[in-house]
Specification:
about 100 residues; mainly beta; Tumour Suppressor Smad4; 5-stranded mixed beta sheet; 5-stranded antiparallel beta sheet; about 40% strand; globular
């Protein structure tokens, strides 16, 4: 798969998460499998993201995907199964 997948609370996002902890434009996943540089970019001005346990601190920062990458957004986990495509599984964290 080539292209972008946006994640946020905005109805125009590809993945819409209606939660007060998710910004309207929270994150973007860019798939470039032919050149091997698919990545997750932080679009949030207020929140950090985690990819495979590594923090993406501020807006505009990005980390590159590996096979079986795992994105963590506050109380949700999103599982990316491949750099060539995606599958999202939402797990609510319990305290």
């Amino acid at each position: 798969m080539d292209g972008e997948v946006t994640i946020g609370s905005d109805p125009s996002s590809y993945i819409v998460i209606e939660d007060e902890t998710i910004d309207r434009q929270h994150a973007k996943v860019v798939f470039n499998p032919d050149v091997g540089d698919s990545y997750l970019e932080n679009l949030s001005q207020n929140h950090v993201l985690y990819l495979n346990g590594k923090v993406i601190q501020k807006r505009g920062d990005k980390l590159y995907l590996t096979e079986d990458s795992r994105i963590h957004l506050f109380n949700r986990d999103i599982i990316l199964l491949s750099k060539k495509g995606y599958s999202f599984i939402f797990e609510t964290k319990t305290e």
